[in-house]
Amino acid sequence: MKKYAIIVAGGSGQRMGSSIPKQFLLLGGKPLIFFTVRAFLESYDDMKVVLVLPEDFVARGEDIIAEMKFQERVTIVAGGELRFHSVKKGLEQIEEPSVVFVHDGVRCLVSAELIHRCYEQALEKGSAIPSVAATDSVRISEDGKSSIVDRSKIRLIQTPQTFRSEILVPAYNQEFQEGFTDDATVVEAIGQQIFLIEGEYDNIKITRPLDLVIAEKLFHQKLSALEG
Amino acid sequence: MKKYAIIVAGGSGQRMGSSIPKQFLLLGGKPLIFFTVRAFLESYDDMKVVLVLPEDFVARGEDIIAEMKFQERVTIVAGGELRFHSVKKGLEQIEEPSVVFVHDGVRCLVSAELIHRCYEQALEKGSAIPSVAATDSVRISEDGKSSIVDRSKIRLIQTPQTFRSEILVPAYNQEFQEGFTDDATVVEAIGQQIFLIEGEYDNIKITRPLDLVIAEKLFHQKLSALEG
Questions:
Q1: What is the ipTM of this complex?
Q2: Cis peptide preceding B160, ω within 30 of 0
Q3: What mean pLDDT do residues A192-220 have?
Q4: Which residues between 165 and 224 in chain B have a beta carbon less than 8 angstroms from any beta carbon of chain A?
Q5: Who among B153, B156, B210 is closest to A136 (CB)?
Q6: CB contact under 8 A, B213 and A218
Q7: Which residue from A86, B130, B170, B226 could staple onto A79, CB 3.0 to 4.6 Å apart?
Q8: A36-50 in b/e burial notation, b at 16+ Cβ within 10 A?
Q9: How much is the pTM?
């Protein structure tokens, strides 16, 4: 089956207290998205990557990709106003039928193993949404009051959110709604059930300066493991 | 007001894949609980610490404390079967009225600033439960199906869970119930409202090998900051 990773990297990076969008921050001397794109390219020989960047950063993205092995399998497109619109632009580049991975550009530590498991489950069930258990107790807070939630039922959601194209493409053809916070919610809105899969604790989203420190540490560990 | 930190460190550490309970794992050459105890001792001149350890590790705890500045403000007691029983044993050591901080032994990166804020709020409102927002989307999963939760309402709960003794002591005099997963749930069960406060992302719970790596990194950063 054809495979496409739509890597969404349209954020402005304001939470990092940096003027560089976080997907371009350096990790071991290279921008985060270099590693994210590479993880997908290396996961399958026939994986194609659609990298969605803010319009002003497309040229910069091209420079980064120009250095990469397998660059012929990467297409860069300019994103839209919100994540929803960016994914929609990415989907214009794919052929059907296929399995589509929608992935956060700043989750650069995603493993080939997780990508493989998502692929297998999406093929079989139509979708695979990686998620991990919460380490801490969880409460729902509203109007100044809070109540405990059974922690065993809580799942923290990651990406790549992976779907068969015949589910994902129609979902992104509907009108945008407020509640569309990720691909799973977009797909549910057309009446499709989504299926979770076990994610990885290391598959973190780089959103704060601390996360970059963690990623750097993990990244060195992974490199040592590969070279060791 | 008198101040007591009950530091609960009764876990067996099985999740770390280590035969050493995780509260004794080394960080910069010293056991985790050394740093946890020190953080509380240094936060206020009149802070007393009750360190609750598994019975077999009390002697080891005494060796660790023997090296510390302010060791005269530390009491070590043997814990009970569950966290609930361990906290109850710790509470036998306090005088009232006081403000009591109940803290996970493996959250060794807690800051003096958070301890101070918890104290102020507990004095004023009766309780202070530190919590942070979720970075990822959150779902509630049940019977193989899952549904999205409004992320802005989700709070990940940390410690020190801080209370005025006149609220916490009666709460721990009730019978144990299944749903007692932390101090906040124990206090709610006697009909008291609990009050959240903003926690800290760095105030992580060391439960997996990855967490130890992160803690080591953060710990070095903090030391560098202190040393200027």
A1: 0.88
A2: yes
A3: 86
A4: 179, 181-182, 184-185, 188, 193-194, 196, 201-202, 205, 207-208, 210, 213-214, 217-218, 221
A5: B156
A6: yes
A7: A86
A8: bbbbbbebbeebbbb
A9: 0.86
